[in-house]
Specification:
Elements: H1 2-28, E1 36-45, H2 58-68, E2 72-80, H3 91-99, E3 102-111, E4 121-129, E5 133-143, E6 154-166, E7 169-177, H4 185-198, E8 204-209, H5 220-225, E9 227-228, H6 229-233, E10 251-255, E11 260-266, E12 277-284
Parallel strand pairs: 1-2, 7-8
Antiparallel strand pairs: 1-12, 2-4, 3-4, 5-6, 6-7, 8-10, 9-10, 11-12
Helix pairs in contact: 2-3
């Protein structure tokens, strides 16, 4: 009896010790308030899965993203059953399956199918994430449609907003693709719209194709609010377009001032007509979103 009593006491002591260690590990571990979390972010205009050679190969796109080691990816020019150029495939679903990631797709255009009963033809932006997406929305900003005969600037969908839980650090993630025309008027309106939306959250990342250089006047209100990950970590020009012989920097990863950028890189690849940009970012748990 005495031996059995000692055995049970030993077991209870071991359980208590295990719980104590686990409790301390939890407090000091990945869910600890204020603890830093590192994440690698990418922005990539994938040209609907076509490379600089003009050939559609969405698996090549997936391979490029995989090799980058990125955890969260902002994608522009994403086709979902859009047309023959991408074989009417669902590009974001293929990428998510290939990379085993969460995703959210935000259409800029959503058109009736060519054949009744087929899926809708959609084109837009998307996010891929290694980490859970807690909330996601398709926000409207001013656009000048490429699908209308006589378009005028007006609110339209296609500004992606997602709340992502990165090991306990919750961050709002925005994906943009701004107007491509030489006249900056629409981009100026889009920047104002984006600032109105992102201003509701203090802790966010804004990534995508701005179709304008860092000195463009229409981008300055955005660059005054956000820190440019490339400029924080590099002195070089960071040219991203066109991929085969880049002469412009139009792809950006922008951070709330509370975040730190450890490194940023432009990856040399011909898997699209843009070169992707990555940034290693330090987040903190417990920041107000």
């Amino acid at each position: 009896m005495r031996t059995g009593k000692k055995l049970w006491l030993s077991i209870l002591l071991l359980i208590a010790l295990t719980l104590l260690i686990g409790s301390n590990s939890y407090a000091m571990g990945e869910f600890a308030h204020g603890r830093q979390v590192n994440v690698k972010v990418m922005t990539y205009n994938i040209q609907a899965g076509a490379g600089s050679d003009g050939k559609y190969d969405i698996k090549r796109t997936a391979d490029m993203i995989r090799q980058s080691g990125a955890d969260i990816i902002a994608l522009q020019e994403v086709d979902v059953h859009w047309g023959a150029r991408s074989l009417f495939e669902n590009d974001i679903e293929i990428l998510a399956n290939e990379l085993n990631m969460y995703y959210f797709f935000t259409p800029i255009y959503s058109l009736d199918p060519l054949t009744p009963g087929d899926p809708r033809r959609e084109f837009g932006v998307a996010v891929l994430s290694k980490y859970p997406i807690l909330e996601a929305n398709n926000r409207e900003i001013t656009r000048l449609s490429t699908q209308e005969a006589n378009p005028v600037p007006k609110p339209a969908p296609g500004f992606l907003e997602a709340l992502i839980n990165v090991k306990g650090a919750k961050v709002w993630f925005y994906v943009k693709h701004l107007d491509y025309r030489s006249d900056p008027a629409v981009r100026k309106m889009q920047v104002a719209d984006m600032l109105n939306i992102t201003g509701k959250h203090e802790y966010s990342i804004l990534a995508g194709d701005m179709n304008a250089g860092p000195n463009a006047p229409e981008l300055q209100p955005l660059l005054e609010k956000y820190n440019d990950a490339w400029a924080l970590t590099n002195a070089g020009p960071g040219l991203t377009y066109p991929a085969n012989k880049p002469s412009q920097r139009i792809d950006y990863i922008l951070l709330s001032p509370q975040m730190e950028a450890k490194t940023s890189e432009v990856i040399e690849t011909l898997a699209s007509d843009h070169r992707p940009v990555t940034a290693e970012i330090t987040l903190k748990r417990g920041n107000k979103q």
